[in-house]
Structure formats: structure tokens, C-alpha cells
Amino acid sequence: MSQVDFLLEYTQLSGGAMHYIYPQQELIKDLIQNFEQAHGTIRFNTEATFVINENGAEVEYYDKKQKNSKRMACDFIAGCDGFHGISRRSVPSTHARIFERYYDSSWLAILAEAPPSANHIIYALHPNGFAGHMLRSDKVSRYYLQVKNTDDVNNWPDERVWTELELRLGKEGWRLIQGEILEKQIIPMRNFVIEPMQYQRLFLAGDSAHIITPAGGKGMNLAIQDSLVLGELFVGHYRGDFSADLNAYSSIRLPDIWHAQEFSSSFLDILSRSNDAFETDLFTRKLNESRLLQLRDNPLVATDFSKKYAGAMADPHHYAYGN
Ligand SMILES: Cc1cc2nc3c(=O)[nH]c(=O)nc-3n(C[C@H](O)[C@H](O)[C@H](O)COP(=O)(O)OP(=O)(O)OC[C@H]3O[C@@H](n4cnc5c(N)ncnc54)[C@H](O)[C@@H]3O)c2cc1C
Fold first, then answer.
1. Distance in Å, CA 180 to ligand 1 centroid
2. Nearest CA to ligand 1 atom 28
3. Cβ 50 vs Cβ 59: under 8 Å
4. If DSSP codes are grouped into helix, strand and coil, which group holds residue 99?
5. If you measure from the C-alpha of residue 49 to the centroid of ligand 1, how many angstroms do you get, rounded to a whole number?
6. Whose CA is nearest to atom 49 of ligand 1?
7. pLDDT of 79-117, one tens digit each?
8. Which atom of ligand 1 sits closest to the CA of residue 219?
9. What is the ipTM of this complex?
10. CB contact set of 252 (below 8 Å; sequence gap of 6+)
């Protein structure tokens, strides 16, 4: 395919939906501050080690400061401990279905103290693989490079990162602004969903319940939306509002989660190029090229994509954040 270069005005196409850049560490700082100001208690340095969820709910935890284990009885448990946490593991396999998919390439994610090299996000499809340029702040930018699953971060000294970004993102008259690399990690591309997201008094929220590829930046957004819905259901429950059915949590959240999974995996298909297996599948490659051209040439396709990208849905629970 000859070079395709186009600008997708997703804010305009989505009807003016706002896309906030809220770096995750800033969001967490603000959430902690707000929670403490509202007299909430957070036990830092405390690791949950076991979830008991039969005949009432209890959490066993290890207090790293006092160096001892304790138990806390509770009405409900919100399992917000990420993909590798313990809460999902306490759900018996007979009570849940796991849906997962792994891809044959990964992304090298880079965070650098470098101002953005363009005033918009760039997704570049190069024969060496995908490269991305994401805005974070006026001093910090994030970049992605598609790599093989067998690759190792040690194969990517800073100089090689900048050379490869320059090569894959570069076009005439454009310059990549370099800076100090703050973080480099290889992220496997995978999708994961557990259904239902509730087992008895345990409610899973965020990455503990679902993992999504970084294509389209939906993971943190889904985690926020889960928490928003779960929080409202808890408040309704304690206020005695009969319409606040905690048992409906999973069925409220799962449709949105699958919409996001569908969007992210279709987008990843368009972005993924030139790994060995893919090069041999020319039919798939032609389909993905066709999707890219439709995005450029078909206003209906571009509008639909933009609304999903910016999270511009009718539901007031939808906001889009970039991490
Ligand atoms: C490089 C990169 C870029 C990303 N970019 C975006 C983006 O642009 N937009 C977007 O929406 N998403 C993005 N994501 C995804 C997003 O970061 C995750 O989806 C989000 O962090 C999920 O939040 P969470 O709170 O569910 O889990 P986590 O962020 O994993 O938090 C879980 C917390 O639980 C704690 N914990 C774990 N086990 C225990 C235990 N046993 N006891 C006590 N505490 C425990 C952990 O220490 C951690 O603090 C990105 C991810 C990566 C890796």
C-alpha cells in the first residue's frame, strides 16, 4: 500500500467529546487526597493475603509495619487489586467463566521527559511494526513500539529506542524531540474478562476483572467506570434504595466492557504490522488496510471510530482519560 497519511479530528467527529489527559499517578494522588479529606481511612503498607467469602466476608491482611497478620470482617469486598491481585483468585472456577486472548506481538512502552513532537497523537504503521506518540504533558511524552513477544527490554538501550521511533514515526519535515527516558517496559497484548464480576460478597473492579490491550487507552477508563457504578450501588444499598441492586453490578458493567474490548482489538488489528505470522497472512493484511482506508475515506466509519475512541456515549458514566 502506498503511504497513507491523514489526520482524524476525533473531537470534532465525536460531537465535541472531551478527552482529558490525566496521568495515572496524578489521578491516584488526587483520589487519595479527596478520600482522606472526606475522612476515609487508607491502610498503606498493608497487603491483603486472603479473601474469605463464605458465610460472610472477611479479608486477611499482613501489616508490614507491625509485622503481623490480622482479619477484618466486612459487609462487602471490592476487589480492586489489579490483574495480579488476590481477590479474583478467591473466586471458585466453578462460579466463573474466563474469556482470554493473547496476541503474537507486544508493545515496548516508553515514558520520556520530552515535550510532545506534535500537537496530536500519532499512530504510525511501518514495515518494522507499529509506533505511537502520545501526549502526556508539555514536558513528558509516551511512545510505543510494536516488538516480538520474545523481545526483552534489555535489547532496547535508549539510543536504539530513539532511532527506531525516528524511523517508524518519521516523515519529511518532522522532527522527533528526544529527552531522558524515564521508564521502559514490554507490555504483552492480551484481552481478559471474567464473568460474572461478582461472587457472593466480592465485587471485582478494574484490571482484576478485565485486561484490555493499550490500543485506544481504555483500561483505566473501564476501571473508573466500574468503581463509579459499584460506588453508586453501595450508596444506594446503604440508603435502602430498592432500585440499587448490587447483584446487577456485573450485568450493568459487562456490555460496556465488551464494547471496549471489541473496539480495542479491532483497533489493534489495524495497528499491528509485519510480525512474522502476520506477514504470511496476506488476506488479513488486506482486510486491515481496507479498515484503515475506510477510516480515512468514509465519514460514517470515522465518526463511529471517533465516538468510541473519545468515549462519547450517551451514558453520563462515560468519560475518556488518557494515561
Ligand atoms: C504503559 C501503560 C499505558 C496505559 N495507558 C492507558 C491509557 O492511556 N488509558 C487508559 O484508560 N488505561 C491505560 N492503561 C491501563 C491502566 O493503567 C490500567 O487499566 C489501570 O491501572 C487499572 O487500574 P486498577 O486500579 O484496576 O489496577 P492497578 O492500577 O493495577 O492497581 C491495583 C492496586 O492494587 C494493589 N494491590 C495488588 N495486590 C494487592 C494486595 N494483595 N493487597 C493490597 N493491595 C494490592 C496494587 O499495589 C495497586 O496499587 C495503561 C497501562 C499501561 C501498562
1. 24
2. 82
3. yes
4. strand
5. 18
6. 81
7. 999 999 999 999 999 999 999 999 989 999 999 999 999
8. 19
9. 0.98
10. 229
Distance 240 CA to ligand 1 centre (A): 32
How many other C-beta atoms are found inside a 10 Å radius of the C-beta of residue 254?
17
**What does the pLDDT look like over 268-288, one tens digit per residue?**
989 987 555 555 677 877 888
Between CA 286 and CA 156 the distance in angstroms is 31
Domain 101-189 CATH (choose: 3.40.50.10700, 1.20.1250.20, 3.40.30.10, 3.30.9.10): 3.30.9.10
- Ordered by start, the domain boundaries in the chain are 22-96+196-275, 101-189
Question: By alpha-carbon position, which residue is closest to atom 21 of ligand 1?
Answer: 220
Atom of ligand 1 nearest to the CA of 222: 11
Report how far ligand 1's centroid is from the alpha carbon of 19 (Å): 20
CATH 3.20.20.150 is held by the domain 22-96+196-275? no
Could you count the other beta carbons within 10 Å of the beta carbon of residue 238?
Answer: 10
